[in-house]
Design brief:
D-Amino Acid Oxidase, Chain A, domain 2; FAD/NAD(P)-binding domain; nine-stranded mixed sheet; about 30% helix; binds flavin-adenine dinucleotide
Length: about 550
């Protein structure tokens, strides 16, 4: 019988969402040999299914001042260290006729009390700056909200971790945790693509599995890690209807935030308990409710073309002072479960709660605690050292990026040749919606655009394929934004699959299987919105892909990608 492969690391991080990526970076920067294990793609869990708002803290000023302050501080830090993932749009809180003054008064008092920056905007000016804002607006207050790209954030963070010597194992599920003398000693993993089982000998484990944190704890027989998955739905329409984040100035409720994200506008969200984070639902009436909420803020929202809807589960810490169904009232702060003091198991901490906005702080606090336990205090430097951009430029034909101060990263995650014409570098600094167009214009003579909606170039696709030949089309979508625009992959998915064959990255059978899987996944987020313009687009896609190309009849490899 074959021997089981064994790896080892001082720190094993379970979960490759924003929190786990942040923990891996922090631990690696402090000099620990680190392995990050993620059961699927990086940031495909909650961190890729969220609203896209870099909180200023204003949202929680009244209900949760502690979280508000954390968000405010982290907002400033992330804008400084990770500008590639953030578009500094600014945000407004808008009261509409009938909203009543009591919340607005409380809000302004709480903002003052907590030192959160804000400023009243004259209505006449507000209408000039956001001409689509409803005429029913009666009060506008500006805050420091921004738009953040969860994938760019996670991939940049992981790039930094790799540069500091960490290893990242994607599509690897933790199936068990071994104990030796009351202390965690091994992490038992399965490579979901090859089916191989292997073991990591672990000096310490940090469980950052988001809404699955409780499930991972049960691998140690610990049943009461009370993380409540609270599901929320979001809907994207195909135009960027507003320039800044719009929040309703009222008690937090369903559908009261609109975020301009890249070329789309996202309205959301809902907040309801979910029994299983792997089985979330998107009822049609909730989708319609979201569209109505968008219409209330921006008349005409319903006329914009619906693009896609999705649902994610917040990893909230159960709050026994509110009823289990009232997840909206639960605290948004982070929590660290110390399994030594509460369960008598040394060698593992679990971290959950918080926001994507506070991922860096969560990582800092849990790694600080780990250092204390290991008796090895080491200073955290993540608040001051810039995070590099994602390895393949996430939204345009990439640029050559300067590695950070760390060791040589493993080949698998590093660009192995320059992917942008020599000397052409994207300027660093805050990202703007126009950056992609500027990049595409600068390379159009020597590169081909394969996704017109999102301006993704052939060079960027080929680069990503060479570095990650096992990636599915959905993985490429998260890296490059292929298929995120109005055609939802109708044109660019088939083109990408064809290029993967031309480049010998995939066989024809693999390309057909990948295309079918991608279209099935896209359909999940399209079908609740199938009316109007989207219906026409879907009919066109169906004719092209299933009629002309005969996708269902083509021979395909067995689907192995998840
Ligand atoms: C609807 C909604 C809207 C939101 N909007 C915002 C917002 O606008 N701004 C904001 O700041 N925050 C927002 N949040 C909160 C934010 O998205 C989350 O707090 C954050 O993304 C959680 O990140 P995480 O890394 O802890 O969890 P996740 O991103 O869920 O990562 C956990 C990872 O663990 C992996 N995993 C699970 N089990 C295993 C296993 N056995 N082995 C290996 N890997 C495993 C999963 O695959 C997953 O990738 C929103 C959340 C929701 C649900």
């Amino acid at each position: 019988m074959d021997e089981v492969r064994r790896l080892s690391a001082e720190v094993v991080v379970i979960g490759g969402g924003s929190t786990g990526c942040g923990v891996a970076r922090d631990a690696a920067m402090r000099g620990f040999s680190t392995i990050l294990v993620e059961r699927a793609d990086l940031a495909q869990g909650t961190s890729g299914r969220f609203h896209g708002l870099l909180h200023s803290g204003a949202r929680y000023a009244v209900s949760d001042p502690e979280s508000a302050t954390e968000c405010c501080v982290e907002n400033r830090i992330l804008k400084r260290i990770q500008p590639d993932a953030i578009e500094p749009t600014g945000g407004w809180f808008v009261a509409l006729e009938g909203d009543g003054p009591d919340y607005s008064d409380k809000f302004l008092r709480a903002m003052e009390r907590n030192g959160l920056p804000h400023e009243e905007v004259r209505l006449a000016l507000a209408r000039r700056l956001e001409p689509r804002l409803t005429r029913r607006a009666v009060q506008v207050i500006s805050v420091d909200d921004a738009a953040v790209d969860g994938w760019a954030l996670a991939l940049g963070t992981v790039r930094s971790a790799l540069e500091y010597g960490a290893r990242v194992l994607r599509y690897t599920e933790v199936k068990g945790i071994g104990l030796t003398g009351g202390r965690t000693s091994t992490v038992h993993c399965r490579d979901r693509r090859s089916g191989e089982d292997f073991v990591i000998e672990a000096g310490f484990i940090i469980n950052a599995a988001g809404p699955w944190v409780g499930r991972v704890a049960t691998l140690l027989g610990i049943e009461d890690v009370t993380v409540e998955p609270a599901q929320g739905i979001m809907v994207a329409v195909s135009q960027r209807l507003v320039s800044r984040v719009l929040n309703r100035l009222r008690y937090p409720g369903d559908g009261d935030i609109m975020v301009p994200a890249q070329t789309v506008s996202i309205i959301g969200t809902t907040d309801a308990p979910a029994s299983d984070p792997d089985r979330l639902v998107m009822p049609r009436d909730k989708i319609q409710q979201m569209l109505d909420c968008g219409e209330a803020l921006v008349p005409g929202f319903r006329q914009a073309r619906g693009l896609h809807c999705w649902v994610g589960a917040r990893p909230l810490i159960r709050d026994d002072s509110v009823k289990p169904a009232e997840t909206r009232k639960m605290r948004r702060g982070m929590f660290i479960f110390d399994h030594a003091s509460r369960d008598g198991v040394e060698g593992m901490l679990s971290v959950a709660g918080g926001k994507l906005t506070t991922y860096r702080l969560m990582a800092q606090e849990v790694v600080d605690q780990m250092c204390l336990k290991l008796g090895s205090p080491r200073r955290c430097r993540t608040a001051s050292e810039p995070v590099p951009p994602p390895p393949t430029d996430h939204f345009v034909a990439g640029q050559v990026t300067k590695p950070g101060a760390g060791a040589e990263a493993p080949e698998i995650e590093q660009p192995d040749w320059p992917i942008s014409p020599a000397g052409r570098q994207r300027p660093t600094g805050p990202r703007h919606i126009t950056d992609r167009l500027a990049e595409a214009e600068s390379t159009r003579a020597d590169d081909q655009i394969i996704c017109e909606c999102e301006l993704v170039s052939r060079r960027a696709l080929v680069s990503a394929l060479r570095r990650h030949p096992d990636d599915s089309l959905d993985d490429l979508r998260r890296r490059l934004r292929i298929g995120m625009g109005p055609c939802q992959g109708g044109f660019c998915a088939a083109r990408s699959a064809g290029i993967a064959c031309q480049e010998d990255a995939w066989s024809a059978g693999q390309a057909v299987a990948a295309l079918r899987l991608f279209l099935r996944n896209r359909w999940i987020g399209q079908q609740p919105l199938v009316y109007g313009e989207l219906l026409k687009q879907i009919a066109l896609d169906n004719w092209m892909l299933y009629g002309t190309l005969g996708l269902e009849q083509l021979p395909a490899s067995q689907e192995v990608v998840l």
